[in-house]
Amino acid sequence: MTIEFLVIAGPQDRGAASVTRRLAALHGGSAVLQLSPASLSRSRWLHTVSPAGTCNTRIGVPDGRTADDRNLRWVLNRVVSPPVVPAFRTASAKDQDYAAAEFQALMTSWLASLGTRVINPAGPALLAGAYGPPLSWMGQARAAGLKVQVSRMATPDGIPSSVPEPPIGSKDQSPGSYVLVAGRRILGPLAAMFGPQCLDLGQRLGVVLAAFHFVPSGRNLVLARVNCMPPLAQEEEVDAVVRLAGEEAEGRILHDSRLRAAR
Amino acid sequence: MILVFGRPDDPPIALLLAALQQRNAGYAFIDDRHLAYTSLSLDLDGGPVGGRLRAAGEDIELRAIGSVYARLLNVVIPADPGQASHVQAFHALFTQWLDLTPALVVNRPWAMASNASKPYQAQLIAAAGLEVPETLVSNDPEEIEAFHGRHGHIVFKSISGVRSVVAEFGSQHAGRLPLVRSLPTQFQVAIRGADVRVHVVEGRTFATEITCEADDYRYATRSGAEAQLRGITLDSDIRDACIRLARSLDLPLCGIDLRRTPDGRWVCFEANPMPAYSYYEEHTGADISGALASLLLDAAHSPDGQ
């Protein structure tokens, strides 16, 4: 049977594993495949680009199955960096960097060619979704009506400095104070307080699935981080992502130009 | 105000500075070797991203900058830990500012990212209306052999933005083909014809035809070959396609690599977002630096920097 749903995630990613199990229960195990970064690096790759720019990708995975993008209806990508290529494990740092850059370039082309079938849409700056320099998402957050933790940053030369980590990534922060956006669904402990603003911010950033984490600042809660790979620890969050997969596969999600802009 | 970032001895920077001086244009210059002594603060308060830049005794209000030419090459990180963290912080903030400022930026880091994946950029090039070479990325020797068999002449090159020498795949490589199992490799149908590099500076184009026996003219001397460069005039359809591509990639300056086949087709290999245009200007006399200086000058004087 053909693979229609693909989840790319590490073996420790319990949220992704829950999504895979639920998809398999709904669509049949043979239609669903979870691939780890290690599996990707051991797979047989065929990625073609025609003179007109049309792509086709076939990935022959180690268990003998093949994921062909002509059959893929939905992909959940939980990988931000390319896999370590086994043959380069003992190579020089320069060669390892080269292998990583080559694999990332391949995955960028493949995932980007899938367009909105991938959650979150991939781009050259970040495999996992929208490129988000901290000031960019902070500015967008303000435009969406949210207060942000930091509005000024400076080089550390005596000026009060704060150069926060890149905000879009996988690290969880303040797990109890967040809003989860999955398509048009809004969940999480702060959904009632900040849900519409987070939905708006997600659209501005070009992400379909994200958790927006808030921290106290004086008497307010302010946005501190956007996580494009939320842990999906709650059953209802897994359910929202699985519903998202069904809707995307049926083409029922409306994607606006901002999603395309994220590419 | 115009801001130029890079190294004064980098030929594209040197040519631009000379062109600005020729036009009596005022500019601020940030030498990327002195970042340990350059400070930057950014803030979101009060509209578009603002802040201050202090370098070489100058204190610059960022909102006063109307245009920027930045060549973000490999920034040298000092050995001193304090200076190293300062330089890294500067680089992180400056990159963000380049992406966010309403000033004209040649080119924004976000826009340059497409060049990090050649097959990804090929999709964008084709979407802009230019033909790209038929491409296979694979780690399967049998598929590569089949691709070779179908097309007769194929070349291989890096997939990423890491520079590589383009070489034709031939019988001398057959014994090494199993090595591709270690890492997917990019192969393309070899396109015969004349190399043409088109520099787009906003709406203007500067085309150079390169005649060379080597597979990759950039490395011609390695194989004892020599590249001959001459300026040419493009037909309007290919000129317009190049301008359309540069605009779709949001690159006010870019170097587009094309090949014109004997049967008159144009095939595009890539769009370089940080072209070393000086090489072509020095060989052909095309005034690319002048066009770039005028672009920056016009934007610096316009109300919104665009």
Quick recap of the structure?
The complex is a heterodimer of chains A (263) and B (306). With 263 residues, chain A is an alpha/beta fold.
Largest interface: A-B, 50 and 59 residues
Mean pLDDT of chain A: 84
Distance between the termini of chain B: 13 Å
The count of strands of chain B amounts to 16
* Biggest sheet record of chain A: 5 strands, mixed
Which blocks of ≥5 consecutive residues of chain A have pLDDT under 50?
A: 158-170, 252-263
The share of residues in helices of chain B is: 25-40%
Percent of residues of chain A in beta strands? 15-25%
Shape category of chain B = globular
Side by side, the strands of the main sheet of chain A go: 9-13-12-10-11
Keywords:
heterodimer; A: 263 residues; alpha/beta; four-stranded parallel β-sheet; globular; B: 306 residues; alpha+beta; five-stranded antiparallel β-sheet; 16 strands
Question: How does the SSE layout of this entry go?
Answer:
The complex is a heterodimer of chains A (263) and B (306).
Chain A lengths: L4 E4 L5 H14 L4 E4 L1 H6 L1 E6 L5 E6 L5 E3 L5 E4 L15 H21 L4 E2 L14 H10 L8 E3 L13 E2 L8 E5 L2 E3 L3 H15 L3 E9 L2 E8 L7 H15 L7 H5 L2
Parallel strand pairs in A: 1-2, 1-6, 6-7, 9-13
Antiparallel strand pairs in A: 3-4, 4-5, 10-11, 10-12, 12-13
Helix pairs in contact in A: 1-6, 4-5
Chain B lengths: L1 E5 L4 H12 L4 E5 L7 E5 L6 E6 L2 E4 L5 E4 L10 H20 L3 E3 L2 H4 L5 H10 L7 E4 L2 H11 L2 E4 L9 E2 L16 E5 L4 E8 L2 E8 L16 E5 L3 H13 L4 E8 L5 E7 L5 H7 L3 H14 L5
